[in-house]
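A reminder from the course coordinator: this example appears on the midterm review sheet, so study it carefully.

Given structure:
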Protein backbone atom coordinates (compact mmCIF):
# COMPACT_ATOMS: atom_id res chain seq x y z
CA UNK A 1 0.00 0.00 0.00
CA UNK A 2 1.52 3.28 -1.10
CA UNK A 3 2.31 5.96 1.45
CA UNK A 4 2.23 8.68 -1.20
CA UNK A 5 -0.86 9.89 -2.97
CA UNK A 6 -1.44 11.89 -6.11
CA UNK A 7 -2.87 15.39 -6.21
CA UNK A 8 -6.16 14.08 -7.60
CA UNK A 9 -6.46 11.51 -4.82
CA UNK A 10 -5.69 14.08 -2.17
CA UNK A 11 -8.45 16.30 -3.49
CA UNK A 12 -10.67 13.26 -3.49
CA UNK A 13 -9.78 12.48 0.12
CA UNK A 14 -10.69 15.99 1.21
CA UNK A 15 -13.86 16.21 -0.83
CA UNK A 16 -15.30 12.74 -1.28
CA UNK A 17 -17.91 12.34 -3.96
CA UNK A 18 -20.41 9.87 -2.57
CA UNK A 19 -22.59 10.21 -5.63
CA UNK A 20 -20.89 7.58 -7.79
CA UNK A 21 -23.47 5.34 -9.40
CA UNK A 22 -21.64 2.42 -11.01
CA UNK A 23 -23.81 -0.04 -12.84
CA UNK A 24 -23.80 -3.57 -11.54
CA UNK A 25 -22.43 -6.41 -13.61
CA UNK A 26 -25.00 -9.05 -12.74
CA UNK A 27 -27.34 -9.56 -15.68
CA UNK A 28 -30.33 -10.82 -13.72
CA UNK A 29 -30.38 -7.63 -11.63
CA UNK A 30 -28.82 -4.87 -13.69
CA UNK A 31 -27.36 -4.48 -17.16
CA UNK A 32 -23.57 -4.46 -17.34
CA UNK A 33 -21.67 -1.36 -18.40
CA UNK A 34 -20.08 -3.04 -21.42
CA UNK A 35 -20.36 -6.56 -22.75
CA UNK A 36 -17.23 -7.09 -24.76
CA UNK A 37 -16.98 -10.04 -27.08
CA UNK A 38 -13.84 -11.92 -27.99
CA UNK A 39 -12.90 -14.40 -30.68
CA UNK A 40 -11.36 -16.55 -27.96
CA UNK A 41 -13.86 -18.72 -26.08
CA UNK A 42 -13.22 -21.09 -23.19
CA UNK A 43 -15.37 -24.06 -22.23
CA UNK A 44 -15.76 -24.71 -18.47
CA UNK A 45 -13.84 -27.97 -18.84
CA UNK A 46 -10.86 -26.02 -20.20
CA UNK A 47 -10.75 -23.56 -17.31
CA UNK A 48 -8.62 -25.61 -14.88
CA UNK A 49 -5.80 -26.02 -17.40
CA UNK A 50 -5.96 -22.29 -18.25
CA UNK A 51 -5.68 -21.26 -14.59
CA UNK A 52 -3.00 -23.84 -13.82
CA UNK A 53 -0.92 -22.52 -16.70
CA UNK A 54 -0.88 -19.14 -14.94
CA UNK A 55 -0.25 -20.12 -11.33
CA UNK A 56 2.32 -22.85 -12.15
CA UNK A 57 4.73 -20.52 -13.92
CA UNK A 58 8.27 -20.88 -12.50
CA UNK A 59 8.26 -17.33 -11.13
CA UNK A 60 5.43 -18.36 -8.76
CA UNK A 61 7.19 -21.44 -7.35
CA UNK A 62 7.26 -19.94 -3.84
CA UNK A 63 3.90 -18.19 -4.08
CA UNK A 64 0.80 -19.43 -2.26
CA UNK A 65 -2.40 -19.34 -4.34
CA UNK A 66 -5.95 -19.73 -3.07
CA UNK A 67 -8.67 -19.77 -5.72
CA UNK A 68 -12.34 -20.68 -5.89
CA UNK A 69 -14.59 -20.16 -8.93
CA UNK A 70 -18.26 -21.09 -8.94
CA UNK A 71 -21.34 -20.42 -11.02
CA UNK A 72 -23.59 -17.87 -9.32
CA UNK A 73 -26.25 -19.78 -7.40
CA UNK A 74 -29.35 -17.62 -6.93
CA UNK A 75 -31.48 -20.48 -5.61
CA UNK A 76 -29.18 -21.56 -2.78
CA UNK A 77 -29.10 -25.13 -4.06
CA UNK A 78 -25.62 -26.35 -4.97
CA UNK A 79 -23.34 -24.07 -7.00
CA UNK A 80 -21.13 -25.72 -9.57
CA UNK A 81 -17.43 -25.39 -8.76
CA UNK A 82 -15.45 -24.59 -11.88
CA UNK A 83 -12.06 -24.38 -10.18
CA UNK A 84 -10.63 -24.79 -6.67
CA UNK A 85 -7.10 -24.42 -5.32
CA UNK A 86 -6.61 -24.42 -1.52
CA UNK A 87 -9.99 -22.75 -1.27
CA UNK A 88 -10.54 -23.87 2.32
CA UNK A 89 -7.20 -22.59 3.63
CA UNK A 90 -6.62 -19.29 5.42
CA UNK A 91 -4.91 -16.40 3.66
CA UNK A 92 -4.01 -12.87 4.70
CA UNK A 93 -6.74 -11.01 2.79
CA UNK A 94 -5.78 -7.31 2.73
CA UNK A 95 -8.66 -5.06 1.61
CA UNK A 96 -11.01 -7.78 0.36
CA UNK A 97 -11.87 -7.86 4.08
CA UNK A 98 -14.07 -4.86 3.32
CA UNK A 99 -16.44 -7.14 1.41
CA UNK A 100 -17.39 -8.80 4.69
CA UNK A 101 -17.66 -5.52 6.61
CA UNK A 102 -19.95 -3.80 4.11
CA UNK A 103 -22.19 -6.83 3.63
CA UNK A 104 -22.62 -7.23 7.38
CA UNK A 105 -23.43 -3.52 7.75
CA UNK A 106 -26.13 -3.70 5.08
CA UNK A 107 -27.59 -6.81 6.67
CA UNK A 108 -27.64 -5.38 10.20
CA UNK A 109 -28.19 -1.64 9.70
CA UNK A 110 -29.97 -1.33 6.36
CA UNK A 111 -29.15 0.83 3.39
CA UNK A 112 -30.81 3.96 4.84
CA UNK A 113 -28.82 4.01 8.08
CA UNK A 114 -27.11 7.34 8.86
CA UNK A 115 -24.54 8.31 11.49
CA UNK A 116 -25.54 11.37 13.52
CA UNK A 117 -23.35 13.99 15.19
CA UNK A 118 -25.28 15.98 17.84
CA UNK A 119 -24.93 18.99 20.10
CA UNK A 120 -26.91 19.10 23.36
CA UNK A 121 -27.66 22.11 25.58
CA UNK A 122 -26.97 21.11 29.20
CA UNK A 123 -27.72 24.57 30.60
CA UNK A 124 -25.59 27.35 32.07
CA UNK A 125 -23.81 27.87 28.78
CA UNK A 126 -22.60 24.24 28.62
CA UNK A 127 -22.94 22.41 25.32
CA UNK A 128 -22.04 18.78 24.73
CA UNK A 129 -21.07 17.69 21.22
CA UNK A 130 -21.44 13.95 20.78
CA UNK A 131 -19.43 12.25 18.06
CA UNK A 132 -20.63 8.88 16.82
CA UNK A 133 -17.85 8.04 14.42
CA UNK A 134 -19.17 9.56 11.19
CA UNK A 135 -16.19 8.99 8.84
CA UNK A 136 -17.59 11.39 6.23
CA UNK A 137 -17.72 14.44 8.52
CA UNK A 138 -16.02 17.46 6.96
CA UNK A 139 -15.54 21.13 7.77
CA UNK A 140 -18.70 21.82 5.77
CA UNK A 141 -20.73 19.94 8.38
CA UNK A 142 -19.05 21.86 11.19
CA UNK A 143 -20.06 25.08 9.46
CA UNK A 144 -23.64 23.76 9.40
CA UNK A 145 -23.52 22.98 13.13
CA UNK A 146 -22.18 26.44 13.94
CA UNK A 147 -24.90 28.07 11.86
CA UNK A 148 -27.58 25.98 13.57
CA UNK A 149 -26.33 27.15 16.96
CA UNK A 150 -26.38 30.76 15.85
CA UNK A 151 -29.94 30.34 14.58
CA UNK A 152 -30.86 29.02 18.03
CA UNK A 153 -29.59 32.26 19.49
CA UNK A 154 -26.32 30.92 20.87
CA UNK A 155 -23.68 33.66 21.03
CA UNK A 156 -21.55 32.37 23.91
CA UNK A 157 -20.49 28.87 24.96
CA UNK A 158 -19.02 28.79 28.45
CA UNK A 159 -17.98 25.16 28.25
CA UNK A 160 -17.92 22.91 25.22
CA UNK A 161 -17.74 19.22 26.14
CA UNK A 162 -16.40 16.93 23.43
CA UNK A 163 -18.02 13.58 24.21
CA UNK A 164 -15.71 10.93 22.77
CA UNK A 165 -17.36 7.98 24.53
CA UNK A 166 -19.27 6.41 21.66
CA UNK A 167 -16.31 4.23 20.64
CA UNK A 168 -14.43 2.45 23.42
CA UNK A 169 -10.91 1.13 22.95
CA UNK A 170 -7.69 2.10 21.24
CA UNK A 171 -8.02 4.52 18.33
CA UNK A 172 -5.24 2.63 16.52
CA UNK A 173 -5.50 -1.18 16.51
CA UNK A 174 -2.48 -2.81 18.09
CA UNK A 175 -2.13 -5.22 15.18
CA UNK A 176 -1.54 -2.47 12.60
CA UNK A 177 2.02 -2.03 11.40
CA UNK A 178 3.77 1.03 12.80
CA UNK A 179 4.88 2.14 9.32
CA UNK A 180 1.22 2.54 8.26
CA UNK A 181 0.11 4.67 11.20
CA UNK A 182 1.55 8.07 10.15
CA UNK A 183 -0.45 8.15 6.93
CA UNK A 184 -4.08 8.73 5.97
CA UNK A 185 -4.80 5.04 5.36
CA UNK A 186 -3.78 4.29 8.96
CA UNK A 187 -5.59 7.24 10.53
CA UNK A 188 -6.92 6.86 14.10
CA UNK A 189 -10.52 5.70 14.51
CA UNK A 190 -12.42 7.58 17.20
CA UNK A 191 -15.88 8.93 17.97
CA UNK A 192 -14.73 12.18 16.37
CA UNK A 193 -13.55 11.91 12.78
CA UNK A 194 -13.02 15.11 10.80
CA UNK A 195 -11.63 15.35 7.28
CA UNK A 196 -10.83 11.63 7.61
CA UNK A 197 -8.52 12.46 10.52
CA UNK A 198 -5.80 13.50 8.09
CA UNK A 199 -3.98 16.72 7.23
CA UNK A 200 -2.32 17.59 3.95
CA UNK A 201 1.41 18.34 3.90
CA UNK A 202 3.08 19.76 0.79
CA UNK A 203 6.83 19.90 0.22
CA UNK A 204 7.98 22.58 -2.24
CA UNK A 205 11.37 22.59 -4.01
CA UNK A 206 13.54 25.68 -3.46
CA UNK A 207 16.87 26.73 -4.94
CA UNK A 208 19.32 23.96 -5.67
CA UNK A 209 20.98 22.79 -2.45
CA UNK A 210 18.30 24.22 -0.16
CA UNK A 211 15.93 22.13 1.97
CA UNK A 212 12.37 21.63 0.73
CA UNK A 213 9.75 24.00 2.17
CA UNK A 214 6.94 22.23 4.11
CA UNK A 215 3.48 23.80 4.09
CA UNK A 216 0.34 22.44 5.75
CA UNK A 217 -3.06 22.73 4.09
CA UNK A 218 -4.33 23.97 7.46
CA UNK A 219 -1.67 26.37 8.84
CA UNK A 220 -2.70 25.63 12.43
CA UNK A 221 -1.62 22.02 11.89
CA UNK A 222 1.96 23.21 11.76
CA UNK A 223 1.81 24.01 15.48
CA UNK A 224 0.94 20.40 16.26
CA UNK A 225 3.98 18.81 14.67
CA UNK A 226 7.74 19.05 15.01
CA UNK A 227 9.25 18.49 11.57
CA UNK A 228 12.81 17.22 11.24
CA UNK A 229 13.56 18.25 7.67
CA UNK A 230 16.46 16.36 6.09
CA UNK A 231 15.53 17.08 2.48
CA UNK A 232 17.31 18.83 -0.35
CA UNK A 233 16.45 20.50 -3.64
CA UNK A 234 18.49 18.97 -6.47
CA UNK A 235 19.14 19.97 -10.06
CA UNK A 236 16.55 19.54 -12.78
CA UNK A 237 16.18 16.01 -14.10
CA UNK A 238 17.21 14.34 -10.83
CA UNK A 239 14.97 11.54 -9.54
CA UNK A 240 12.39 12.38 -6.88
CA UNK A 241 12.13 10.43 -3.65
CA UNK A 242 10.58 11.34 -0.33
CA UNK A 243 10.19 9.27 2.85
CA UNK A 244 8.25 10.37 5.91
CA UNK A 245 8.29 8.62 9.27
CA UNK A 246 6.82 9.42 12.67
CA UNK A 247 8.83 8.93 15.84
CA UNK A 248 7.63 6.60 18.60
CA UNK A 249 6.31 9.53 20.64
CA UNK A 250 4.05 10.45 17.79
CA UNK A 251 4.37 14.18 17.15
CA UNK A 252 7.68 14.38 15.32
CA UNK A 253 7.83 13.85 11.57
CA UNK A 254 11.16 12.85 10.08
CA UNK A 255 11.33 13.78 6.40
CA UNK A 256 14.08 12.69 4.05
CA UNK A 257 14.53 12.83 0.29
CA UNK A 258 14.83 15.18 -2.62
CA UNK A 259 12.89 17.07 -5.29
CA UNK A 260 14.27 18.66 -8.43
CA UNK A 261 14.29 22.42 -8.98
CA UNK A 262 11.01 23.67 -10.51
CA UNK A 263 9.29 20.30 -10.04
CA UNK A 264 5.77 19.86 -8.68
CA UNK A 265 5.42 19.75 -4.89
CA UNK A 266 5.25 16.42 -3.12
CA UNK A 267 1.88 15.94 -1.40
CA UNK A 268 1.18 13.59 1.49
CA UNK A 269 -1.84 13.06 3.74
CA UNK A 270 -0.64 12.70 7.34
CA UNK A 271 -2.84 11.07 9.99
CA UNK A 272 -3.68 13.50 12.81
CA UNK A 273 -2.14 12.76 16.18
CA UNK A 274 -5.10 13.75 18.39
CA UNK A 275 -8.55 13.39 16.72
CA UNK A 276 -10.44 15.19 19.51
CA UNK A 277 -8.11 18.18 19.55
CA UNK A 278 -8.29 18.23 15.74
CA UNK A 279 -12.10 18.33 15.85
CA UNK A 280 -12.35 20.97 18.60
CA UNK A 281 -9.74 23.23 16.99
CA UNK A 282 -11.60 23.25 13.67
CA UNK A 283 -14.99 23.69 15.34
CA UNK A 284 -13.72 26.65 17.36
CA UNK A 285 -12.70 28.38 14.13
CA UNK A 286 -16.17 27.93 12.62
CA UNK A 287 -17.87 29.10 15.81
CA UNK A 288 -15.84 32.30 15.74
CA UNK A 289 -16.80 32.89 12.12
CA UNK A 290 -20.44 32.73 13.26
CA UNK A 291 -19.63 35.24 16.05
CA UNK A 292 -20.03 32.61 18.78
CA UNK A 293 -17.42 33.00 21.51
CA UNK A 294 -16.05 29.89 23.18
CA UNK A 295 -14.75 29.71 26.73
CA UNK A 296 -13.15 26.52 27.92
CA UNK A 297 -13.34 23.09 26.35
CA UNK A 298 -13.25 19.69 28.02
CA UNK A 299 -13.27 16.10 26.87
CA UNK A 300 -15.14 13.02 28.07
CA UNK A 301 -13.56 9.74 27.04
CA UNK A 302 -13.98 6.04 27.70
CA UNK A 303 -17.09 6.53 29.85
CA UNK A 304 -18.96 3.23 29.51
CA UNK A 305 -22.07 4.50 31.28
CA UNK A 306 -22.26 7.58 29.06
CA UNK A 307 -21.73 5.47 25.95
CA UNK A 308 -24.62 3.19 26.81
CA UNK A 309 -27.06 6.10 27.13
CA UNK A 310 -29.21 6.43 24.04
CA UNK A 311 -29.14 9.73 22.19
CA UNK A 312 -32.63 10.67 23.34
CA UNK A 313 -31.67 10.10 26.99
CA UNK A 314 -28.60 12.30 27.07
CA UNK A 315 -28.95 15.20 29.47
CA UNK A 316 -30.25 18.31 27.76
CA UNK A 317 -31.99 19.08 24.50
CA UNK A 318 -30.44 18.40 21.11
CA UNK A 319 -30.13 21.84 19.51
CA UNK A 320 -27.95 21.06 16.50
CA UNK A 321 -27.17 17.96 14.46
CA UNK A 322 -25.81 16.73 11.15
CA UNK A 323 -26.02 13.29 9.59
CA UNK A 324 -23.88 11.27 7.22
CA UNK A 325 -25.04 10.13 3.83
CA UNK A 326 -27.02 6.87 3.98
CA UNK A 327 -25.13 3.61 4.37
CA UNK A 328 -25.77 2.78 0.72
CA UNK A 329 -23.47 5.69 -0.17
CA UNK A 330 -20.89 5.17 2.58
CA UNK A 331 -20.15 1.62 1.44
CA UNK A 332 -19.34 2.91 -2.05
CA UNK A 333 -16.45 4.85 -0.57
CA UNK A 334 -15.34 1.72 1.29
CA UNK A 335 -15.45 -0.72 -1.61
CA UNK A 336 -14.85 1.45 -4.67
CA UNK A 337 -12.00 3.48 -3.16
CA UNK A 338 -10.93 0.98 -0.46
CA UNK A 339 -11.18 3.56 2.33
CA UNK A 340 -9.78 2.02 5.53
CA UNK A 341 -11.10 4.67 7.91
CA UNK A 342 -14.66 4.34 6.63
CA UNK A 343 -14.49 0.55 7.03
CA UNK A 344 -13.11 0.78 10.57
CA UNK A 345 -15.78 3.29 11.59
CA UNK A 346 -18.45 1.05 10.11
CA UNK A 347 -17.39 -2.11 11.95
CA UNK A 348 -17.49 -0.13 15.20
CA UNK A 349 -20.90 1.26 14.28
CA UNK A 350 -22.17 -2.32 14.11
CA UNK A 351 -21.74 -2.43 17.90
CA UNK A 352 -24.99 -0.43 18.24
CA UNK A 353 -26.81 -3.69 17.48
CA UNK A 354 -25.60 -5.37 20.69
CA UNK A 355 -25.05 -4.16 24.27
CA UNK A 356 -21.40 -3.79 25.15
CA UNK A 357 -20.03 -6.35 27.59
CA UNK A 358 -17.94 -5.26 30.56
CA UNK A 359 -14.46 -4.18 29.46
CA UNK A 360 -15.26 -5.00 25.83
CA UNK A 361 -13.96 -2.69 23.12
CA UNK A 362 -16.31 -1.36 20.49
CA UNK A 363 -14.40 -3.00 17.64
CA UNK A 364 -14.67 -6.42 19.30
CA UNK A 365 -18.38 -5.92 19.85
CA UNK A 366 -18.75 -4.86 16.23
CA UNK A 367 -16.86 -7.92 15.01
CA UNK A 368 -19.24 -10.15 17.00
CA UNK A 369 -22.22 -8.51 15.30
CA UNK A 370 -20.41 -8.85 11.98
CA UNK A 371 -20.02 -12.59 12.48
CA UNK A 372 -23.70 -12.96 13.33
CA UNK A 373 -24.65 -11.07 10.18
CA UNK A 374 -22.33 -13.09 7.96
CA UNK A 375 -23.72 -16.35 9.34
CA UNK A 376 -27.20 -15.16 8.42
CA UNK A 377 -25.94 -14.35 4.91
CA UNK A 378 -24.55 -17.85 4.59
CA UNK A 379 -20.85 -17.61 5.50
CA UNK A 380 -19.45 -20.43 7.63
CA UNK A 381 -17.86 -18.74 10.71
CA UNK A 382 -15.02 -21.30 10.69
CA UNK A 383 -13.84 -20.05 7.27
CA UNK A 384 -12.49 -16.69 8.49
CA UNK A 385 -11.04 -14.84 11.49
CA UNK A 386 -11.10 -11.06 11.65
CA UNK A 387 -9.13 -8.59 13.74
CA UNK A 388 -10.33 -5.39 12.03
CA UNK A 389 -12.85 -4.25 9.44
CA UNK A 390 -10.55 -2.83 6.77
CA UNK A 391 -7.93 -5.51 6.14
CA UNK A 392 -4.98 -3.42 7.32
CA UNK A 393 -4.26 -5.92 10.09
CA UNK A 394 -2.13 -8.92 9.21
CA UNK A 395 -3.97 -10.91 11.87
CA UNK A 396 -6.97 -11.18 9.56
CA UNK A 397 -7.42 -14.63 8.03
CA UNK A 398 -9.96 -15.35 5.30
CA UNK A 399 -10.34 -18.33 2.99
CA UNK A 400 -11.37 -18.06 -0.67
CA UNK A 401 -14.30 -20.25 0.36
CA UNK A 402 -15.53 -17.60 2.82
CA UNK A 403 -15.46 -14.86 0.19
CA UNK A 404 -17.34 -16.96 -2.36
CA UNK A 405 -19.93 -17.97 0.26
CA UNK A 406 -20.37 -14.27 1.03
CA UNK A 407 -20.75 -13.26 -2.61
CA UNK A 408 -23.21 -16.09 -3.23
CA UNK A 409 -25.27 -15.15 -0.18
CA UNK A 410 -25.30 -11.44 -0.97
CA UNK A 411 -26.56 -12.12 -4.49
CA UNK A 412 -29.65 -13.77 -2.93
CA UNK A 413 -30.20 -11.02 -0.35
CA UNK A 414 -32.64 -8.08 -0.45
CA UNK A 415 -29.69 -5.66 -0.57
CA UNK A 416 -27.93 -7.33 -3.51
CA UNK A 417 -28.31 -4.41 -5.91
CA UNK A 418 -27.01 -1.88 -3.35
CA UNK A 419 -24.00 -4.10 -2.67
CA UNK A 420 -23.23 -4.63 -6.35
CA UNK A 421 -23.34 -0.87 -6.90
CA UNK A 422 -20.63 -0.45 -4.25
CA UNK A 423 -18.05 -2.56 -6.08
CA UNK A 424 -15.42 -1.27 -8.50
CA UNK A 425 -15.97 -2.02 -12.19
CA UNK A 426 -13.08 -3.45 -14.19
CA UNK A 427 -11.46 -0.74 -16.29
CA UNK A 428 -13.98 1.86 -15.10
CA UNK A 429 -14.04 2.85 -11.41
CA UNK A 430 -12.12 3.03 -8.16
CA UNK A 431 -9.20 0.74 -7.42
CA UNK A 432 -10.16 -1.34 -10.49
CA UNK A 433 -10.16 1.60 -12.89
CA UNK A 434 -6.83 0.96 -14.59
CA UNK A 435 -6.98 -2.83 -14.69
CA UNK A 436 -8.36 -5.10 -17.42
CA UNK A 437 -8.84 -2.28 -19.89
CA UNK A 438 -9.27 -3.38 -23.52
CA UNK A 439 -9.83 -6.98 -22.48
CA UNK A 440 -12.87 -9.26 -22.51
CA UNK A 441 -13.24 -8.51 -18.80
CA UNK A 442 -13.59 -4.73 -19.05
CA UNK A 443 -16.95 -3.55 -17.80
CA UNK A 444 -18.33 -7.03 -17.05
CA UNK A 445 -16.39 -7.73 -13.85
CA UNK A 446 -17.19 -6.09 -10.50
CA UNK A 447 -14.74 -6.97 -7.75
CA UNK A 448 -12.93 -5.79 -4.63
CA UNK A 449 -9.17 -5.50 -4.75
CA UNK A 450 -6.73 -6.09 -1.90
CA UNK A 451 -3.02 -5.30 -1.73
CA UNK A 452 -0.25 -5.13 0.84
CA UNK A 453 3.35 -6.30 0.87
CA UNK A 454 3.37 -9.97 -0.19
CA UNK A 455 -0.41 -10.03 -0.56
CA UNK A 456 -2.63 -9.51 -3.62
CA UNK A 457 -6.33 -10.44 -3.64
CA UNK A 458 -9.38 -10.03 -5.86
CA UNK A 459 -12.93 -11.28 -5.33
CA UNK A 460 -16.18 -10.55 -7.11
CA UNK A 461 -18.51 -11.35 -9.99
CA UNK A 462 -18.07 -11.95 -13.72
CA UNK A 463 -20.99 -11.45 -16.09
CA UNK A 464 -19.77 -13.06 -19.29
CA UNK A 465 -21.95 -12.41 -22.35
CA UNK A 466 -21.65 -16.07 -23.38
CA UNK A 467 -21.99 -17.77 -20.02
CA UNK A 468 -23.92 -17.51 -16.78
CA UNK A 469 -22.64 -15.18 -14.01
CA UNK A 470 -19.62 -16.46 -12.10
CA UNK A 471 -18.43 -15.79 -8.55
CA UNK A 472 -14.69 -15.92 -7.83
CA UNK A 473 -12.06 -15.34 -5.20
CA UNK A 474 -8.31 -15.23 -5.92
CA UNK A 475 -5.86 -14.78 -3.04
CA UNK A 476 -2.08 -14.64 -3.28
CA UNK A 477 0.18 -14.74 -0.20
CA UNK A 478 3.86 -14.95 0.59
CA UNK A 479 4.99 -13.86 -2.83
CA UNK A 480 8.33 -12.24 -3.49
CA UNK A 481 7.19 -11.10 -6.91
CA UNK A 482 6.38 -7.41 -7.54
CA UNK A 483 2.74 -6.52 -7.02
CA UNK A 484 2.49 -5.55 -10.69
CA UNK A 485 3.50 -9.06 -11.79
CA UNK A 486 1.01 -10.77 -9.48
CA UNK A 487 -1.81 -8.47 -10.56
CA UNK A 488 -1.11 -9.27 -14.19
CA UNK A 489 -1.36 -12.99 -13.41
CA UNK A 490 -4.63 -12.53 -11.52
CA UNK A 491 -6.01 -10.42 -14.35
CA UNK A 492 -5.08 -13.14 -16.84
CA UNK A 493 -7.21 -15.57 -14.83
CA UNK A 494 -10.12 -13.12 -14.72
CA UNK A 495 -9.96 -12.62 -18.49
CA UNK A 496 -10.29 -16.40 -18.84
CA UNK A 497 -13.42 -16.25 -16.68
CA UNK A 498 -14.83 -13.50 -18.88
CA UNK A 499 -14.29 -15.70 -21.95
CA UNK A 500 -16.28 -18.66 -20.64
CA UNK A 501 -18.98 -20.01 -22.93
CA UNK A 502 -21.53 -22.79 -22.79
CA UNK A 503 -20.12 -25.89 -24.50
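Designed residues:
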Amino acid sequence: MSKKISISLLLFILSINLGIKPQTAIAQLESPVIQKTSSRKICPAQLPSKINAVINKPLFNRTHWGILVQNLDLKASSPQTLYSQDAEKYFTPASVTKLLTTAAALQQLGKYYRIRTSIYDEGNGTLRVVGRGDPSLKDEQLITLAKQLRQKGVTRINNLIADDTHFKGEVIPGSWMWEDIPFYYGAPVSSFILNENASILRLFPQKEGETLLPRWEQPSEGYRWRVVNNTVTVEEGEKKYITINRDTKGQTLNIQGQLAVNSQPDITAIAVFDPIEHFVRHFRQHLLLERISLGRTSTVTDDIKARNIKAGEIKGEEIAAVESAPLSELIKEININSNNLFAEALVRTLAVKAPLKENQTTVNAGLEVLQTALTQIGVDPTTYKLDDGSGLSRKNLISPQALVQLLQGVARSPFAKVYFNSLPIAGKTGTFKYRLRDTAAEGIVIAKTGTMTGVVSLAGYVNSPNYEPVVFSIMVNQTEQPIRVVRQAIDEIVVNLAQLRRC
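The chain has three domains: 22-111+328-498, 116-171+274-326, 194-271. The radius of gyration is 24 Å.
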